[in-house]
Amino acid sequence: MAYPHDRVRLTMAQAVVKYLSEQYSERDGVERRFIPAIFGIFGHGNVAGLGQALFEYGQDLTYHQPCNEQSMVHTASGYAKVNHRMATIACTASIGPGSTNMLSGAATATINRLPVLLLPSDYYATRYQGPVLQELEHPVSAEVSVNDCFRPVSRFFDRVNRPEQLLTALPEAMRVLTDPAETGAVTISLPQDVQAHAYDYPAHFFGKRVWRVERRPPTKARIAEAVELLKGAKRPMIIAGGGVHYSEAWDALADFAETCGIPVGETFGGKGAMRDTSDWAIGGFGVTGTPAGAKIAAEADLVIAVGTRLTDFSTGSQSAFPNPDVRFIGINVAGHDAYKQGALPVTADAREALTALAEASREAGIRADDTYKAKIGRHMDAYHKSLKEEVYVDHPGEAMSQA
């Protein structure tokens, strides 16, 4: 057991490795390592600091060698996505172009609300040695480095100019990474010289820490308002986004849709949120969605957006919902997304909100009439017919022309 007065002397880089090795996430009683591994392309700026630390203290932080900085961040985002944002992979790169190669990956992670921890190398905090190879020298401000480019594409950015600054920087990084409403790319910029600076860290700082990802429940008032909108709707539809997967809300979505008789379209991020075998599944939605989804959206008078950012690919740059009387309900753990399209915001975990909405809808006796279901069926039949006539191969025994 570590007592508050106990100290352990480590370099800043060693402290980063030891701290990350003890971070866990937990939701619904399931606990797991939040950062089980790290990607890194080493060069000047990180090989003698973070690289050395991984060699010495990285037994519980598996190192994987990638071939490109941008692709390793995209891979970390993909890992976070398939793990429903409950785990991710850290990424480190060398000073200058190595680190800036991670910018597109950082932007993608932040845009898609996916947790990724970036550890780019930075110039010497002491500046004693003069210009650093491949690093920016800004004529206006000596404190500006190329890593400042990460600021607009990160949900949290910090430059650790003293080793003790880790004591606040790393916990804040973890808080943002594990917050469903705030998550995205988190950048902790590590100056080359400070990575090797030693400090007497509190021993308890390196103890196991579990970050509980709580499911935010919807308020009763918002559910009641949503039910009133559902009561007045004749042609409602649901748009399921990636948040359905992150919340593991598949069963709750199916229950709500089938209880109320509401068709479900899926965004790119929400693909697979609804079982294809359901009578209420209308497949992909948006610019690259199905014709059936487009026709249903054009007539919709109520759109329930669940866990989606409602990008232009989903809204057709505001052309997908031409009905002047269409209303929106936004179910999203992030308030910024819940309010889009002037929606009634239900700022809550997707699974919690859908469960509450299904229960309230059953009590209110909400159910789309059979004529609406029949129209949806006709749209889907026409879509499947067009697939058979225009896409499917009629002669599977023939060789492809490019074979």
Overview of the molecule:
The chain is α/β, with parallel strands linked by helices and 403 residues long. 35% of the residues lie in helices and 20% in strands. The protein has 14 helices and 17 strands. The strands form 4 sheets. The chain has a 6-stranded parallel β-sheet. The protein has a 6-stranded parallel β-sheet with strand order 14-13-12-15-16-17, sandwiched between helices. Strands 3-2-11 form a 3-stranded mixed β-sheet, with no helix packed on it. Helix 3 (69-82) runs parallel beside helix 5 (103-111) and helix 7 crosses helix 13.
Summarize the structure.
With 403 residues, the protein is an alpha/beta fold.
Write the layout of secondary structure elements.
Blueprint: E1 7-11, H1 12-20, E2 23-27, E3 30-33, E4 37-40, H2 47-57, E5 62-64, H3 69-82, E6 90-93, H4 97-100, H5 103-111, E7 116-122, E8 156-159, H6 166-177, E9 185-191, E10 198-202, E11 209-212, H7 220-232, E12 236-240, H8 242-246, H9 250-260, E13 264-266, E14 281-284, H10 291-299, E15 302-306, H11 312-315, E16 327-332, H12 335-338, E17 344-347, H13 350-364, H14 370-390
Parallel strand pairs: 2-11, 4-5, 4-6, 6-7, 7-9, 8-9, 12-13, 12-15, 13-14, 15-16, 16-17
Antiparallel strand pairs: 1-10, 2-3
Helix pairs in contact: 1-2, 3-5, 7-13, 9-13, 10-14
